[in-house]
Amino acid sequence: MKKVSIYELERRIRSRANRQPRNSRTATLLKKGMPKTAQKFGEEAFELSIAAIQRNKKAVIRESADVFYHLLLVLKKSGVKLKDIERELALRANGLAGNPKANRRGT
Question: Which helix (H) or strand (E) holds 73?
Answer without folding.
Answer: helix 57-78
